Amino acid sequence: MTTYLRYLLILLCFPLSSLIYQSAAQAEQKSAVRPNILFLFSDDQRADALGAYQNPNIQTPNLDQLAKAGFSFRNAYCMGSIHGAVCQPSRAMLNSGRSLYHVPMDLKGVTTMPQLLKQSGYTTFGTGKWHNHRDSFQKSFTSGTAAFMGGMSNHLKVPVVDLKHGKFENQRMGEKFSSELFVDAAVNFLKTQPADKPFYAYVAFTAPHDPRMPPPSAMKVYEKNHPPLPKNFMPQHPFNNGWMTGRDEALAGWPRQPEVVREQLAEYYAMITHMDSQVGRILGTLKSRGLDNNTIVIFSSDHGLAIGSHGLLGKQNLYEHSMKSPLIFKGPGIPQNESSNALVYLYDIFPTVCDLTHTSVPAGVEGIDLAPIWRGKQDRVRDSLFTTYEDLMRAVRDDRWKLIRYPQINKTQLFDLKNDPAELKDLSKHPDQQARIQNMLMTLKQWQQKTDDKQPLTSEHPKSEKIDLTGRKRKPDKHQPDWIVKKYFDSE
């Protein structure tokens, strides 16, 4: 080989070897700086139940600061539920990245978000409400403290268990208010974490889920100044949506009395205010340990709640107040005090966390990475969004319009969310909107096909939509403390 050819070969090979070396070094550096993930997840918290979200009637200073220091998605939704305990499928979707009809409630055979991170080198820790069976918690977390496997309980009597070395132990009844119990566990975990190993900490509150029994210290803020009624308050829902007398709906009598709703709303807000103070403890621990600069904090809730809106109390409906949740991302590389109106699902969080942690998205995940939105690469991830509840309700919305279909009574509602965000004016009978309704029904059917929802949208033998629940007798469930039973049940 001539000297010239040897020289040419060196020139050709050197850039290639250099690139290979640089690529490997960059990959190693990328892996070394993977951020911690702290996921704070509340229970039954409406999207508007935050001071930072233009609600002057609730005190949430720590969550407000989180929103100001991070990026908010103002149209984040739970897709819906196959049964009354909406919390369970919402958490199944969140932790699987899959849509409602594609995920088992026990997460069997599914790679969960914490399980994936554990496999990729993260220490994973869980505390609080899981609600998707013990086996899936066991495979998902390296350890857990004060984990609650059920759906609801008295907040002063939460049955919890610990996970250590892959086995459950120390089954007991919690001795503190639920939010304090779970935050104690999270703080203790954060205090023991080495700075050189990334962690995923999942803190799932049971607040503000009922029983709405806030500690007296939190209730003081609202005792003499109850929040105003929701703009869309009604004494009764105007028609039978198929879920009018379930457990959640029986927490107050019919017709709804304005002062009773305001009282329960005050208790609901106080639960959130107390939870917010506990969130402050976690964030303070992050900062004191020097972990805040390399930790992504995510805050959300499994869905919303009516609390008097549309004459309802629960989450078993498809109005905005019940299917929307707050959603905030805060941390390195994420813009501060910015927001998006993109239509997103809670199960989009899974692939977004994969992006943030440089982890490959597993097969079966249907959610869409949201990070390109705050990076300015796109302004949306979907043009429409589909929600569903049992065989009773189906809904679809776009940037402005929302259609709800009730198959059992052959009823349709249409709302202009731009001009009527409280969903008070049904435009389904307006002659100018009939073409829009047909187009949206077509979109709804496309969503059904995409998500394997088999529910017909029309009934051959529709039920009556007429209903009057005035004076209907109610019974409290076993979790309600005596003072709530006396206040809201025995007084009737």
UniProtKB/TrEMBL annotation:
Position of the signal peptide: 1-27
Cofactor: Ca(2+)
A single GO molecular function term of this UniProt record: arylsulfatase activity
SUPFAM superfamilies: Alkaline phosphatase-like
Pfam families: Sulfatase
CDD domains: sulfatase_like
Ranges of biased composition (kind: Basic and acidic residues): 450-471
Keywords: Calcium, Hydrolase, Metal-binding, Signal
PANTHER family in alphabetical order: ARYLSULFATASE FAMILY MEMBER, ARYLSULFATASE G
Name of the molecule in the record: Arylsulfatase
Upper taxonomic lineage: Bacteria, Pseudomonadati, Planctomycetota, Planctomycetia, Planctomycetales
